[in-house]
Amino acid sequence: MKPRISLITLGVGDLPRSRAFYERLGFVVRPESTEDIVFLDMASGLVLALFPREKLAEDAHVDSTGSGFSGFTLAHNVASPEEVDAVLAEAVAAGATLQKPGQQVFWGGYSGYFADLDGFLWEVAYNPLMDLT
């Protein structure tokens, strides 16, 4: 297998509400989206998909009633600590919940977290070792 991720699908509780939330954050809806699934472009070439949680669980043959920490986060890296704070504020203004304000972190960078409308955790991070300019 050639290691690569081309699509991340989030099982959401209310597809139109989640679509509007991500559009408020600047995500662009791809033309192949339908009323049943939404595909969003990401700058890296990766695609973020939004799909009803129950249907996604059914497709994977698992129970849809999980709760608590899911064991993963999504990350959005930016070019400065100030940009971390700005992105967190933008997410909160769009309806997200601030989980952790931007702050210096143990690995030498600066990061914070927000939860989207379905509780998916997004880390917004500045890593001084990554050049994002």
TrEMBL record:
UniProt domain VOC: residue ranges: 4-127
InterPro entries: Glyas_Bleomycin-R_OHBP_Dase, Glyas_Fos-R_dOase_dom, VOC_core
Pfam families: Glyoxalase (PF00903)
Coiled coil (residue ranges): none
Superkingdom: Bacteria
PANTHER family per the UniProt record, alphabetical: BLR2520 PROTEIN
Name recorded for this polypeptide: Glyoxalase
Species for this entry: Malikia granosa
